[in-house]
Amino acid sequence: MTSITASSLLQMRAQILQQNAALQKAAGAAPSAPVAPAGGAAAPSGPGAADFGDALKSALGQVNQLQTKSDAMSASYERGDTTDVAAVMLAREQASVGFQATLQVRNKLLSAYKDIMSMPV
């Protein structure tokens, strides 16, 4: 079993950042701003401070829109206004997958929070 040193942690961090940049480049997105060094643990401030919150709100809004669209299409089909059952089922599956993904993200965030809170100081 190998011991974890500060230099090995910094090396792993650098590898993760390189992989993240490569994935963002492959996805066509601009690489994010570099992360502050591990030495300082200051709270983020400035225009990029609310990026995570904004991204989370946007994702939840999109899931809500998918569910609203699915409900509207289901109600329309039940009333007999539309006969395209494939489109209705597709909308319902999209809403279901979006909701399940949201639940998984929530579970991962809660797990990470619990892990952080249980770390010794």
Automatic annotation (TrEMBL):
InterPro entries: FliE (IPR001624). It is found in: Bacterial flagellum basal body. Residues 28-47 are annotated as: Disordered. Keywords: Bacterial flagellum, Cell projection, Cilium, Flagellum. It comes from the Bacteria. Its main location: other. The keyword NAD does not apply. Belongs to the FliE family. This is Flagellar hook-basal body complex protein FliE. It comes from Sphingomonas morindae. The gene is fliE.
